[in-house]
């Protein structure tokens, strides 16, 4: 395996890198060539990742247009009315291609029958009845013909019964596909008739009915989901292809997993993330308190809190131990030492000497603490953006030959992306190499080999992310031009380097860890060099 660890940040080490040159003029030329190469690398990666999901923002103003677009496609192909096309699309969750596929496979008759759409014209006698009154088969009242309504299925009832039926269905939340009142009739009622009759009785409820029909494009559509922002921004996101396990960014700035609507969590699968969030909610505060205030007794393994200044503590089981190292001791001690005991380097407890509960807690604590370290760093570095913007303004005001400082923003965006990825990589390690989900999926030898491979990549990425963070925090706006160019080179190099490492980490998780598993429930969003896919505006 190639070693991507960036060795040193010392100036002497950087001077020995291959892109540096003793001749100052050649430095400038090489610098430009290097930057061009970096651009080509980024463009190449962008080209690959652009094959991933593309997405659109659907706002309140564009929701109707988005719905009309799909309705029109079905109406044009099948020569249907709008309410018939809507019934088909709601049934097939607004998958236009699925409607067309069923049409080809089963034919129009079975397609319409399954959904409850009938194209049979109304019988002539329903429009030219010989009598002026009709007996409604629901209330058994004789009512004038003009106070009745006939649906596509040719069932005719009085307007009062129809209206009551529609109001009940709308209030029950079944307004998207209201069927005929006749027994064993599954034909979908004309939404125009529903709207007219309900409006006469309850205009507010009619508006609610129209809103349900409009929002069905989001609520019943596999490719469209509401943005989970709090407070809600009012936007929805539509995926333009069939890649539902992906991460997107709404126009409001919220990044989330399209599959489970949680925050962006790749390279962690949705199921792992759900279990991790639940575990953190239940155990996170306990782990934090224990790690800060307590130690485990070496005999009974219960957590012990120290309530005095002496570092020789005694558990309620009677076992004395050293607070500094956790080792069992005797009771004799002075202010400076404990008899027969010295604190050496930390030694990992042997598995056979610890209980399962303690091992599980220690293991979870290990991953939780590292997960939180990167989360905290992400929050701190997000606030660094304002400082970097100020640095760029100072650079632009200076008399420098180069006026392109996009490498600052690109480096910061890469850093934030990598912090999130690193934090989410620890739940992956916790579950894949633990016993909760994949106990019998790997032999102990396979588990050890894959764990070493994964942790090696993870460690390399961590080392270089910390270096990237260090260089971005430097006051480079005050540097002379030659040192500024050197800092720029370091940031660009680390950006490319960490991008390669991140791609390898995702490939390792996807192909080496998850692909061989028997459980097919674990898929992760593909890595994108440019970050989470940003949704573009949908035209009106």
From TrEMBL:
Record keywords: Metal-binding, Repeat, Transferase, Ubl conjugation pathway, Zinc, Zinc-finger
Biased composition (Acidic residues): 1-34
Keyword Ubl conjugation annotated: no
EC number: 2.3.2.31
Top-level class of the enzyme under EC nomenclature: transferase
GO molecular function terms noted in the UniProt entry: ubiquitin protein ligase activity; zinc ion binding
A Pfam match: IBR_1
Region called Disordered, residue ranges: 1-35
Protein name listed in UniProt: RBR-type E3 ubiquitin transferase
High-level lineage: Eukaryota, Viridiplantae, Streptophyta, Embryophyta, Tracheophyta
Annotated organism of origin: Solanum stoloniferum
Family annotation (Gene3D superfamilies): 1.20.120.1750, Zinc/RING finger domain, C3HC4 (zinc finger)
Function: Might act as an E3 ubiquitin-protein ligase, or as part of E3 complex, which accepts ubiquitin from specific E2 ubiquitin-conjugating enzymes and then transfers it to substrates.
Pathway: Protein modification; protein ubiquitination
Cofactor(s) the protein requires to work: Zn(2+)
Domain called RING-type: residue spans: 132-347, 136-184
Transmembrane segment boundaries: none
The keyword Protease is assigned to this record: no
SUPFAM superfamilies, A to Z: RING/U-box (SSF57850)
Catalysed reactions, as listed in the record: [E2 ubiquitin-conjugating enzyme]-S-ubiquitinyl-L-cysteine + [acceptor protein]-L-lysine = [E2 ubiquitin-conjugating enzyme]-L-cysteine + [acceptor protein]-N(6)-ubiquitinyl-L-lysine
Family matches, as PANTHER family: RBR FAMILY RING FINGER AND IBR DOMAIN-CONTAINING
Family according to the record: Belongs to the RBR family. Ariadne subfamily.
CDD domains in UniProt: BRcat_RBR_ANKIB1 (cd20346), Rcat_RBR_ARI1-like (cd22586), RING-HC_RBR_TRIAD1 (cd16773)
